[in-house]
Amino acid sequence: MKRPIRFYVAIFMARSARFLLKKLKRNATHFPGQVARTICFDFLKYLQQPTHLIGVTGTNGKTTVSNMILDVFKAQRIEVANNKLGSNITEGVITALLDATTFFGNRKSEWGVLEIDERASLRIFPYIKPDVLVVTNLFRDSYKRNAHIEFIVDLLNKYIPETTHLIVNGDDLIASMLCAPNSRTTFGILPQENELQVRDSIINDLVYCPNCENRLTRDFVRYHHVGIHHCESCGFKSLPLDVYVKTLDVALRRMVVESKGVSCEFRLVGSNITDAYNMIAMISVFLHYGKTLSEISSIVDTLSIVESRFDEIVVGNKRVIGLLAKDQNPVANSRVFDFIRRETSWGKVAILFANEVYAHVDNPDEVENMAWIYDTDMEYLNQEHVSQLIVGGHRRYDFYARMRMAGIPKSKIVIVDKEEDEIRMIDSSIDTVVLLYSTKNIPIANRMKKEIAKHLVSEVNV
Length: 462
What we know:
Helix 1 (about 5-25) runs antiparallel to helix 2 (about 30-40). The radius of gyration is 23 Å and the shape is globular. It has helices spanning about 5-25, 30-40, 45, 60-75, 90-100, 120-125, 145, 150-160, 175, 275-290, 295-300, 330-340, 370-375, 395-405, 420-425, 440-460, and strands spanning about 50-55, 80, 110-115, 130-135, 165-170, 185-190, 215-225, 225-230, 245-250, 255-260, 260-265, 310-315, 320-325, 350-355, 385-390, 415, 430-435. By secondary structure, the chain is of the alpha/beta class. Helix content is about 35%, strand content about 20%. It folds into three domains: about 1-45; about 50-300, UDP-N-acetylmuramoyl-L-alanine:D-glutamate ligase, CATH 3.40.1190.10; about 310-460, Alpha-Beta Complex (Protein-Tyrosine Phosphatase, Chain A), CATH 3.90.190.20. The strands form three sheets. It has a nine-stranded mixed beta sheet with strand order 2-3-1-4-5-6-9-10-11, sandwiched between helices.
């Protein structure tokens, strides 16, 4: 393919920008791609991709799945081009591929793993053709960016290359139905013995049959529209699973995975059923590339979950738990709230909300659409072991109103102005402090976790 002069100008300027930013000790994971795309809008068209390229997209879990895939490659000492440190939109993908190519944009990496924002697919997939695309799930997301789930599905159906093999969540009917002509592998988790179904979720993005528009029968509901469904009118039903978790023990952090009649036990990396979904997605990728379950299992024993998603600090007989609860994303927050309501072993729990977009920055003129908190299952936090819900930020009274609508007693809700005040208001009788934060304020959350730990140390030493 003949490359235009603007491509060479763009690649020179992008690499120069990256060099200068690195000298300034910046990550340089987005701006070089922005420079390249400004000069050459179809820059990706002329940049050679790795020989084997794995894409990961979906509403929730794509960062964790991408990192798990990278960790497995790292354990095998295989170098992989990736956007782990950068953004998952076009500019971040460009910057990642700059590292995977020679100075003038020719291929030098055999493997690549790219996390791809589903909203950005229309600007990426016309030029980048992954061998494999993992679709973790598809849920209602930010109204401002993603509008509604049908809009995202239409984008993915239109722009995912026909040559790409899909690895889709078979328990998610919306994700599993993507791009009907494409080959696919389905993964999922079988209903477990005595597993509690979650039929009280506010959001259910798939009520009617996509074929005949009659109401679907929900045979098993894990949460929201994830589960097993069929249509009594036309026979439409959930796809059979190719790779699946046969048995899952979250308490012991073990699971048995089966594919094509072969089963193997795995250590569960994490403590939530969503972690099992992330793992089975990663396992499905390496099965596709010829690894055996036992080979993957031996590597998984060395992995740990991405710290920015879940981490724990123990202070004496108390603990501080950080949980990512993506702002503007009602399903992600509902999953976190459901996780908290099940963890009765944590003792008395205080929850600090630091996941409002503009809560802890001096930016009060920004308008944040708060409709998402009314689609979020705040009712899940109305539990006896949840003793305090501490909220700060510009939209603190929106959260307060939603909590009261969920039936949470006034006595449990604490309203403050700043995050420092949130920490100060933690009751001394609390056993576990849960800090909820967003992808946009991870540095602030890290600082808050340290401050919470210091506060608990002072309480213990009193």
